[in-house]
Design a protein that fits this description.
By secondary structure, the chain is mostly helical. The chain has one domain: MFS general substrate transporter like domains (Growth Hormone, Chain: A). The longest helix has 31 residues. It is globular and about 50 Å long. The two termini are 38 Å apart.
Length: 403
């Protein structure tokens, strides 16, 4: 790894922008729900629909990356598209309109990931865990700074104005980032090798779909996403509605969860490069499930904020390790498609979590939804032992060209 790599830094910064906006929505959600008169089930369906649409956006994103290349342009476009749906959400006057708008929320994010992660896997073949973890650091920074900033903004502005005004700096920063990535095109061109034709692309998809190890890892990652997105949907609502915390305090608590994960991904990524993916994931998944149970038990205790910090630390340590493991198993010339499949399954699984949690919260109480989330991440442990650490050299080859 180079001591100073402006491309890695730029990609990390861009990743932070793509995560700023989703974190904004989590903090705005309790006030949006109150303004539109939504039940917990309706909130769960709204966020579930948001994730479901991401499933359908992801695979075309991988196709574009693997067939077109031009990483600099695609990454700049992804940043530009990320904030636009949130801008229109600020004008939503009903639940139906909000559902329509969130359909487009994931377009920018789901184009970013296959372009950025397939590039990193090719640029750093021997240190994928660290490179992907460093890229994930940008996501944590965006996720960490947004809740506090939006919490402060909500003390002075209504949620609609926050979403509308929040769009402007993202456009400006996205333009600067796009220009930087274009100027660094010679480095990004490394990610353009082995572009596939449309026919070859479908051969690649068929080959990947027959790889049981990749499918298992997709399901494993999807179960983790269920836990994370269910928690991020209902934890702010729990803090605002049940504990009656102010917007600033809600933002502060969510910042604690996110901030704890800033360095855990770097640590877990580096350890997994040396010790293997499996032991890191096993420890992280088991600890996350136990901390979710502790979160419910100690909800009014002074240890509550400490539990949140540890929960964020271990939960966010899992993502880059799963991506690195996936890239270990992937054929070398369909990195974009492989990442799209991973994030597509994540979106599919994550779509169920808010809907199920909303149903549980309306009927049994919101705390029981956290027990459900603890069960999902605990159950994921059983899949870890079914996935091989690496494929053989004969298995991990380029997808064959179509005849």
């Amino acid at each position: 790894m180079r001591k100073t790599d402006p491309i890695l830094v730029a990609l990390t910064f861009g990743h932070g922008i793509t995560h700023w906006y989703p974190s904004t929505l989590y903090i705005v959600l309790p006030y949006l729900a109150k303004d539109l008169g939504l039940t917990y089930s309706q909130v769960g369906l709204l966020m579930g629909w948001n994730y479901f649409t991401g499933f359908f956006v992801n695979l075309p994103g991988g196709l574009i990356v693997d067939m077109v290349g031009k990483s600099g342009f695609l990454l700049g476009l992804a940043v530009a598209l990320t904030g636009l749906p949130y801008f229109f959400l600020g004008f939503s006057a009903s639940y139906v309109v909000a559902m329509i708008v969130v359909t487009f929320v994931g377009i920018g994010n789901n184009l970013w990931h296959p372009a950025a992660l397939s590039f990193l896997a090719k640029r750093y073949p021997d240190r994928k865990g660290f490179a992907i973890a460093f890229h994930t650091l940008g996501a944590h920074l965006g996720d960490t700074l947004a809740p506090m900033a939006i919490g402060v903004a909500l003390t002075f502005l209504i949620w609609r104005h926050v979403l509308i005004l929040n769009f402007l700096p993202g456009v400006f920063i996205g333009f600067i980032l796009w220009r930087l990535l274009v100027k660094a095109g010679t480095a990004l061109d490394e990610a353009k090798g082995n572009q596939l034709s449309l026919k070859e692309y479908w051969v690649a998809v068929k080959t990947m779909a027959q790889n049981k190890s990749i499918l298992l890892l997709c399901c494993l990652s999807g179960m983790r996403s269920m836990t994370q997105n269910g928690l991020f949907t209902f934890l702010p609502i729990y803090l605002a509605n049940e504990l009656k915390y102010s917007p600033i305090l809600v933002g502060t608590y969510m910042t604690v969860v996110q901030a704890a994960g800033i360095f855990s991904s770097l640590i877990s990524g580096s350890i997994s490069d040396r010790k293997g993916r499996r032991p890191v994931l096993t420890a992280g998944l088991l600890t996350t499930s136990l901390l979710l149970v502790a979160l419910v038990i100690l909800r009014l205790n002074f240890l509550f904020i400490g539990i949140l910090a540890f929960l964020g630390f271990f939960m966010f340590s899992l993502g880059p390790v799963m991506v690195a493991w996936m890239m270990d198993l992937a054929p070398q010339n369909i990195g974009g498609t492989t990442v799209s499949a991973l994030f597509g399954i994540n979106s599919l699984f994550a779509g169920f979590a808010p809907a199920i949690c909303g149903f549980i919260a309306d009927r049994f109480g919101i705390l029981y939804s956290f027990y459900f989330l603890a069960f999902t991440v605990f159950a994921a442990n059983f899949l870890v032992y079914l996935v091989p650490d690496k494929l053989s050299k004969n298995e991990r080859v380029l997808v064959p060209k179509a005849n």
